[in-house]
Predict the structure of FecR family protein.
Amino acid sequence: MHEAIQNIGQWGSAERHAEAGMKTGPDKNHCRGGDLSRQASAWLVQLEDAPEDDTLRAEFMDWLATSPAHLAAWEETARVSDLIVLAGPSPQIISSLPSGSARRTWFRNTRPARALASLAVAACFVWIAVPYVALQLQSDATTEAGELRQVTLDDGSRVQLAPTTAIAFSNDAAGRRLKLLRGEAWFDVTHDEAHPFKVIAGDNTVTVLGTAFSVRKTDSGTDVAVQRGRVAVTASDGMRSDRVELVAGQSVSTDGTVVTRGTVRPDRVASWRDGIAIVNDLPIGDVINRIRPWYKGYIIARGPGLSDRHVSGIYDLRDPDLALKALARAHKVSVSHVSPWLRIVTVR
């Protein structure tokens, strides 16, 4: 894993090509794990250096289609470098690949065995979709990239799911429990003192009697914001538990070790329900993370400014490319359109 990180910085343009042993992409004949990691690292920086190079893009797709191991190396290189957060493999990713005459145009100047390569690419996506399928089997309701869905529970409570979200619900004598398996949801809970409503997100539990609030599960923790009513958030790190009570207009973020309280305008809680992200002094990386679930593909973000540079603004989530363009125009962020399903965002 550390080798993949180091490789990112080792490939200068000329050195990359010479060391890879070909004019553009890495040597496709090497199949060992270390070689694949180096190749994936080289592809990453080359695609960013020359985003409009059709031949390079076609060679990258050939390399990606060679075997599932190549796609795994590409994913791992980006993941361990903190460059990518997947929206979750979904049918939309596969269906977003060009087809018919568009595919023939996009993949011009490539090897004749294009049909076989296309099938191999689809097979690779199916291969990485296994965790996605497992999540579907655990869930009572899910959404895909760019999809909003409202669910009415048996007790009358309403749950609105953000894109790429999964939930599981149970209702018994012990109370009402909803597990947020992935993503973000807004809740309008029916009052029932005898059966408290609990939302479980990782190690954090939100307990309510009757209120409207949002819960967002991230890789690092959980965010809770209250629109009306009152909730109690219990954050546990396995050793101790911290309980925080919130009322309308208050929020809390937990990362497993630190609990940070904040404020939010009640009418801006879960603004994603209206297809917009209203951000105030957030790191650019966090803004990109809010855009990702709406994009039907991959968004790779890299650069020191992801956490260092903070921004404020309103972004149209229903058009992720437009949101990225607005971010780029206002904050000198570089966005490269590598393929119909891949964007590379660089924040200097």
User: Anything to note?
Assistant: The domain at 149-268 is CATH 2.60.120.1440 (Jelly Rolls).
